[in-house]
Amino acid sequence: MKEELKVKKIKDGTVIDHIKGGMGRKVLDILDIGGNFPETSALLMNVPSKRIGKKDIVKIENKTLKKDEVDEIALIAPNATWNVIKDYKVVKKSRIELPDLIEGILKCPNPKCISNADEPVKSKFKVEEREPVKLRCNYCERIIDLKDVL
Amino acid sequence: MKEELKVKKIKDGTVIDHIKGGMGRKVLDILDIGGNFPETSALLMNVPSKRIGKKDIVKIENKTLKKDEVDEIALIAPNATWNVIKDYKVVKKSRIELPDLIEGILKCPNPKCISNADEPVKSKFKVEEREPVKLRCNYCERIIDLKDVL
């Protein structure tokens, strides 16, 4: 009896490849996959990769990514590859890159920052450094390590 | 360009199949897979299943299950199938069944229960009902819904 597990081809959907090994579950969190998410999906972890050593891969049927989802994935898996599948074919392939400005995803950890006041203001962070990621709040100018806001 | 994702055969490890759709991520939590877990592993979600409608599958290289891990999986994925893989072959296949007594995994939600006293006592629950699961604490005799302790 041979053991083999194949993930069937998806007709339409999204494949996120070259996620840094160990970060794939966080990508599922960002996309809210698991629990009640109804579509067929797959997470492969610590797959050997020539480019990045060990990589995770996320594959989701009937799902397209929104801009804020892509920006959030870019924070934890910069340089991941984003494939759009239509009718069993890769119709678009791109690199997920950290934008220069991150809007509305993260919350400034400074309690006195105007973005945390009662009147809602959309958070904005400038990417100051990329490896490791350092952000600067557009309002209070505090410099923030990514690990402090994720 | 065709898109196909295959999960390579594993030489040695564990496959947990027929997990109720949506519960696979909780199985990864129980086994502490993700983040720093170094082995190749896979989670497939909402795979069509004749037996249970939609199922999740977890596959982990170089991992054997311990008894308390199996008991904890039984709580959230009763009747899952547990395959032990050695040298690319399924050498053991069994059903993960809820035991009659669950020891040391759950914490009694009754703050006055002796199992929550300063002197550590190993928690013990008798399985009173199986669908849905209802447990009785061996010490304070409180009847507990599974959702209150997971």
Overall helicity of chain A:
10-25%
Mean pLDDT of chain A: 90
What form of chain A results from the Cα inertia axes?
elongated
Order of helices and strands of chain A: EEHEEHEEEEEE
Count of β-strands of chain A:
10
Estimated share of beta-strand residues of chain A: 35-45%
- Biggest interface and residues each: A-B, 38 and 38 residues
Oligomer class: homodimer
Distance between the termini of chain A: 44 Å
Main pleated-sheet profile of chain A? 5 strands, antiparallel
Strand order of the largest sheet of chain A: 3-4-2-5-6
Radius of gyration of chain A in whole Å, from Cα? 17 Å
Summarize the structure.
2 copies of one chain form a homodimer. By secondary structure, chain A is mainly beta.
Characterization of this structure:
The structure is a homodimer of 150-residue chains. The first copy, chain A, has a 5-stranded antiparallel β-sheet, with helices on one face. A 4-stranded antiparallel β-sheet of chain A has the order 7-8-9-10, with helices on one face. Chain A has helices at residues 24-31, 67-76; strands spanning 5-7, 13-20, 41-49, 53-61, 81-86, 89-95, 101-103, 124-130, 133-137, 143-145. Chain A is elongated. Chain A has 150 residues and is mainly beta. β1 (5-7) of chain A pairs antiparallel with β1 (5-7) of chain B, so a sheet runs across the interface.
